[in-house]
Specification:
Strand content: 25-35%
Shape: elongated
Number of domains: 1
Number of strands: 4
Mean pLDDT: 89
Structural class: alpha+beta
Low-confidence stretches: none
Number of helices: 1
Largest sheet: 4 strands, antiparallel
Length: 71
Amino acid sequence: MSEAFVIEVDGEALGLAVRDGRRFRFISSQPLLQQIDRKLYPSLRALRSAATEVYRSLTAGRRRPGLIRAF
């Protein structure tokens, strides 16, 4: 049986981290993250960090629907 974890950043589910031996494989649920889809990482922390970096760099400056900003 596979061990999998949902990878969520800023309230968005980006995909799954699936254990592959001693490493973790990222399975993207967002077309935005295809560049790292199926890539292997040495740890869950490294995978989440990579997904966060890519997601935030590609969505920088976009406002999320329903987000209320206080000034």
